[in-house]
Amino acid sequence: MARGERIELIRAIQKHRGSRLICCLTSDRHGAPGNIAKDFIPKFFEHLSRFQQPKKIDVFLFTTGGDTLAAFGLSRLVREFTNSVATLVPEKCHSAGTLFVLGSNEVFMGRAATLTPIDPSVNTPLNPQVELGPGMRQILPVSVESVAGYKALVKDDWGLNDDATGAAFRILADRINPLALGDVYRSRQQIGRLARTLIHYHRHDERKIKKIVEKLTGGYGSHDYPISRAEARELLEAQIAKDDAELERLLWELFRDFSAEMKLGEIFDPTIALQVATASGQRPPVLDTQKLVVIESEAAGDEFARGLQLSAVQAMTPAGPAPGIQAAVVRQGWTHYN
């Protein structure tokens, strides 16, 4: 679908909702992910500034997450332009995306839509590292709930005495730098404060707010637990909008178009990508362009893309030289379009 046809879908949603719409999608591709980040904020501001005193703003959001402070900042930014904010969720709206949702007066979820818990993972240079190969290391994220789960295992399930509990935590500190564990504690406290701040924009029943925050920050047992529309209604109650078949149809059509353009859900494997390109007649090195983020409204759009140059190389392994693929980033950044 061309940009012009997509504009017509955006207009149809705006007419149906009596609102102004901004779309934000981040790539969920394995090997080519996109994440909510702080550089979204000026892009959102430019789109929102084109809306002339809107009574209601809808945010069409698809994401697997990202920077929680960026999501918090985006939610507060939208509220600078209106007191009536809705999030429209066609499919995934996970992690930091769910945090954004908490600041909305209304959330429309299609039948395929899911939210997730908002407990964050901590990524610092002090995190544990894993050896991927000669000279290649990867920093492992430390899940806030994984640390809390270890604590519950030691104290509640195993029922260790004080000395044994101390030994168990010394083992944990040997694996994870104590300063990183401090960051885990701080992050858990912070995510609760951020969630409460956003919820307070549209509700004030403190007992219910506490229940929502506790459930989303530690009540599901896994950061990846998919919260269905029915479960979201049970937790968030009237904040989840009533079913609307026509709106769901329009949102799914718009999502399918973005999905095809961004190749959402497709695995990026550099070896396969190079083989497909050469089979179609291209000669290495081959340029593979990936759309990682799209922020779009009726008036204009912004996309964050990267270009990878794929080349066949001889890689050194313990068994000797072996064919491999080199993927080098040759360009990366934002592009604006009308």
Layout: helices, strands, pairs:
Blueprint: H1 3-17, E1 20-26, E2 28-29, E3 32-33, H2 40-49, E4 57-62, H3 68-79, E5 85-89, H4 96-102, E6 106-109, E7 121-122, E8 129-133, E9 136-139, E10 142-143, H5 144-157, H6 162-175, H7 178-199, H8 206-218, H9 229-236, H10 245-262, H11 270-279, E11 286-297, E12 301-317, E13 320-337
Parallel strand pairs: 1-4, 4-5, 5-6
Antiparallel strand pairs: 1-11, 2-3, 7-10, 8-9, 11-12, 12-13
* N-to-C series of helices and strands: HEEEHEHEHEEEEEHHHHHHHEEE
What global shape is seen?
Answer: flat
Second-tier CATH architecture of the domain at 3-116 and 226-265: Alpha-Beta Complex
Q: Share of helix among residues? A: 40-55%
Low-confidence stretches: none
Number of E-state strands: 13
Rg, Å, rounded: 22 Å
Predict the CATH topology of the domain at 3-116 and 226-265.
2-enoyl-CoA Hydratase, Chain A, domain 1
* SS field, number of helical segments: 11
Sheet with most strands: strand arrangement: 6-5-4-1-11-12-13
Strand content: 25-35%
CATH evolutionary superfamily of the domain at 3-116 and 226-265: 2-enoyl-CoA Hydratase, Chain A, domain 1
Highest CATH level, the class of the domain at 3-116 and 226-265: Alpha Beta
Major β-sheet, in short? Answer: 7 strands, mixed
Structural class: alpha/beta
Mean pLDDT: 87
Give the terminus-to-terminus CA distance. Answer: 15 Å
